[in-house]
Each structure stands twice: as structure tokens, then as C-alpha cells.
């Protein structure tokens, strides 16, 4: 179903590893958040998956695949665009909000640095 959207084997160079295996490798890395070098051997060399991922990101293959999958899901009414986030579980660290540290009696100073160039007159 997605095979026609994937790039074809280039005329030059050796044969490509199977697209299915490489896509599974890329999905494994993205799902687990692991470094490319930690890719299990069953997916083949990590360099192959990484290079294919980068190549397809640069040539727009991932954008076409996503658009196609979304279109198929919309046709089947199998996609829900209403998303909600429960704020009780989404918390920012105190430093993200610019909070003053406990015990600090000085207010935080936020000044822009002056330019090192000559003063405008």
C-alpha cells in the first residue's frame, strides 16, 4: 500500500536492503529513543537505517508517507483530530517558569548586554 510512495532502487550502487526492514529499524529507534548505534542486529547495520532516514527526510518521502496515511485514515473515519491534555500530569520544572530560588533575597536581574561598539551620538 505504501510501496509505490517509497523511492526506487537507484541505478548506481549496490542493491538496497529491504524497505520493510529499514522502516522497522527506523520505527524502533524513534519508538525507543535509543541512539542509532544501539539498533539491534536483526535490523541490519545502523548506518543503513540512519542514512535512509536522513535521505528520506531530505527528499520529502516522510512527508508524502504521512500525508498518504492520514488521507487513508480520514477516508475510513479512523482518525480523531480532537486531542486533549490533562494539565494535572503536564508539569514544568520551576526553572522553566523563571521562579526565584528559595532563600534568594535578591530579585533576579534581567538586563540586556550593551553593545561593545562606539556610542551613538
From TrEMBL:
It comes from the Bacteria. Residues 102-113 have a biased composition (Basic residues). Residues 96-121 are annotated as: Disordered. InterPro entries: IS402-like_dom, Transposase_6_like. It holds the Pfam family DUF4096. Signal peptide: none annotated. Residues 2-65 form the Insertion element IS402-like domain. This is Transposase. It comes from Asanoa siamensis.
Amino acid at each position: 500500500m505504501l510501496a509505490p510512495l517509497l523511492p526506487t532502487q537507484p541505478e548506481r550502487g549496490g542493491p538496497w536492503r529491504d524497505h520493510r526492514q529499514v522502516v522497522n529499524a527506523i520505527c524502533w529507534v524513534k519508538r525507543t529513543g535509543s541512539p542509532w548505534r544501539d539498533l539491534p542486529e536483526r535490523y541490519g547495520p545502523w548506518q543503513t537505517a540512519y542514512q535512509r532516514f536522513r535521505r528520506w527526510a531530505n527528499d520529502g518521502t516522510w512527508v508524502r508517507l504521512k500525508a498518504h496515511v492520514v488521507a487513508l485514515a480520514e477516508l475510513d473515519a479512523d482518525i480523531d483530530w480532537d486531542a486533549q491534555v490533562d494539565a494535572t500530569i503536564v508539569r514544568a520544572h520551576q526553572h522553566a517558569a523563571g521562579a526565584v530560588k528559595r532563600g534568594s533575597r535578591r530579585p533576579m536581574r534581567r538586563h540586556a548586554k550593551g553593545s561593545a561598539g562606539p556610542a551613538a551620538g
